[in-house]
Amino acid sequence: MTPEELRALIRTIPDFPEPGIQFRDITTLIGHQQGLKASVQHLAERAAAVGAEAIAGMEARGFIFGAAVAVQLGLGFLPVRKPGKLPIETIGVDYALEYGTDRLEIDPGAVGKGQKVVIVDDLIATGGTALAAAELLRMAGASVQNALFVIDLPDLGGAGKLRDAGIAVDCLMEFEGD
Questions:
Q1: Phi/psi of residue 37, nearest 5 degrees
Q2: 28-56 pLDDT, tens per residue?
Q3: In which residue ranges of the chain is pLDDT below 50?
Q4: Enzyme class, one word (predicted)?
Q5: What is the dotted CATH code of the domain comprising 50-174?
Q6: In the chain, at which residue ranges do the beta strands (DSSP E only) sit?
Q7: Residue 41 half-sphere exposure, CB side, CA atoms within 13 Å?
Q8: What residues act catalytically?
């Protein structure tokens, strides 16, 4: 399936979570056998092309695509977790949300020094979570130069923020507007 055919599998839900927002729901894509398979194949081809040595994904939907891409490429998967989810000593980074802050954590021993890690997630909006993940992986010694997403919401500017941080961004599709 082409990225345009995959785009047609994304359900748009108006006025969620609040009026004026057009929510891009990937559950219709991941529930479609061929759509999920094709999405993972497209992402895996792009990760392989940039020399990925490991794939990282952020909780929770990044786990879906990231782990599948890692399996497709025969690479390890690095889960970037919400706080308190790992039973070992972690390193973490706090980051700003629209209304407050959040935190991401990883097992620092899971990352090899200089290991080329590609971030994979379902969607890039404002870029806060992806930037925090890149910072955290870099703190652990990874080389993070690429991030792959199924969906980009370009009006929210997240891809540009990643590029400003020295991270190349590639997306399967874009949805303009809110």
A1: -60, -45
A2: 999 999 999 999 999 999 999 999 999 99
A3: none
A4: transferase
A5: 3.40.50.2020
A6: 11-14, 22-25, 54-58, 76-80, 91-97, 100-106, 116-124, 143-152, 168-174
A7: 10
A8: 61, 98
